[in-house]
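Entry 14. Ran structure prediction on the chain below.
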Amino acid sequence: MQGGEDCEPEGSPVGGDGDRYLQRVATRLRMPADAERDVLDELRAHLDDACMGLVAEGLDPDKAEREAIVRLGSPDALGDDLRRSHQTRRRLLAAAGGGVWDGLKDAIAGYFLGIILELIVFMGLGSVAQRLLGPASFTWMTGDWLETAFTGSLLAIAAWWGARGLVRSMSRRSLRRAAALRAPIALVGAVPITLMLLVWPLHYTWAGIAAMLAVPVSWAVSAITTLELGERRSRWTFGRPSARLLGTTVIAVYGGSLALFVISPGVGITSNESRPGDVAISRLPDQQQWVARGYTVVAPAVIDLRHSRWNATAFPDRNGNVALTMSYDTIDWDEFADLRAEAWSALPTDGRIRSLDPRAAGPYVVVPLHPWDATAAIVPVGSKPGIAAYLLFVTGVDRTTAERVAIGSADGEEVAFTGTITDWFTRLGP
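Output, structure tokens:
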């Protein structure tokens, strides 16, 4: 019995039969330990009064105890009746309202604690990446995808604390054991969270996908592993982080980061800063100028790099789109057939995007273009999962040579997939 073993008051007339009766009742209560103890204390006091009354009528103590037990009836039936009288539907609904409020407060506390922890961790990771990767580390610690990964991990921490707070609060308020509430709360929370995340448009990489999908998992695991009120935590269960743990984390992150600046990892960083100057490059023929500027070639020829023949927005918008216009009347577009915008996967860098991804066999986005059209063509450069940077070309088929050529210089920027998690998985693949 959880609550009755320690509750026999000194001088109580209830003996062994009464204790066994209370133990049987306790097995049917299925309440948190504190609530169960209160009910059994009240029942023991009732037995005490009944025994003393019967003794006053002339019965000996043992017979008085047995008679008092008989009058109470079956311990199983009494336990069920007491449980039903305390665990009412009205109390459960009230507990749900109060539990949601308590869980929300715990979730907010977890969210702000997560901000502190993640700032520490991301700063440490930034130091590690900078030391190991050099200029390439810029793409690890910047970009829209980082916002999604950061947000997802914060929500996962908040979900962990919120689910645990909800289960414990509802258990206390509804007088039900946590074991009876864990699975329903895990399911009721994880399902709507998952559905919401599947239709929430954000900037995603695999890191962002993992962070967001961790939110419902964190909620469900936290709810299912919540301990009973008063239950001692084992080494395999997690509670709120202690000050010692937080301090150790801070020291480990910053200590490891500082150590990387002292110990050389021996990683060579290549750079193309030895290219000729801009003046010398501008005197080269177009094709050689293209290569000298660090670009990889996408077409057999590049036409007139000295004059831009089209205009595009400098950066993708929040929806991952670039607007492109071809309203310049400085070239005879009729010399080219099948004009189109091509977005190619490129290698991200901390400088200007210049090199195509060597794994790219072709453009991942193709949009037809109409010269002199005042309406901008929308190029969804953020529509393909796994693309970290792009180079945007305008190409056309030279009617004289029948070859597709790139017209003007290419624009490139970092980009992350923009859409929902559902969109991400439906657009994976070639």
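The first strand starts at residue 202 and ends at 204. Will compare against last week's run tomorrow.
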